[in-house]
Structure formats: structure tokens, C-alpha cells
Design brief:
With 85 residues, the protein is mostly helical. It has one domain. It contains 4 helices and no strands. The chain is globular, with a radius of gyration of 13 Å.
Amino acid sequence: MDTDLDTLATAFYVRVDDLLKAYPGRIPPRPRIGIAPRISDAELMTLAVMQALLGFTSEARWLRHARKCLRPMFPYLPGQADYTR
């Protein structure tokens, strides 16, 4: 992955994470009891924006690419069924 794209993804993640902390009402409600999410909302938004910026129109291709190139940045990458929810 390109260094500039890594920097952009990191900056976007930090900005979204800060905004979600500043405006917690924007986060969808989650049940108090149940399975804890393995990926944060900011990480998922960053993945979606990177998919659009890189021009991937297929979620399957995008997730294959992300598993190959983005594993250091995102320790958990959802499967295709989870990604489209």
C-alpha cells in the first residue's frame, strides 16, 4: 500500500474516532448484553472510505485486497456477510 494512502487512512480514522467520541448520539445503539463488536465503528468507516477511494466496487475483491495489504492496520477484518450489514 502507498505511504500517502496509509497516512490518509490513519488521519481519517483518528478524525472519525474523535468525532464519534465527541458526538456519541451518532453511534447506533448496541445492546448492553451480547457479543462485543470485534471492529470499531471508526475502523469500519475507514475501510468503507478506503474501498471507495481505491475504486473497488466488489466487496469480495475489496476484502481479499484488504486481507492481503491492510492486515497490519486492521487486525480484524470482517467477512463479506458482516461487512455489508
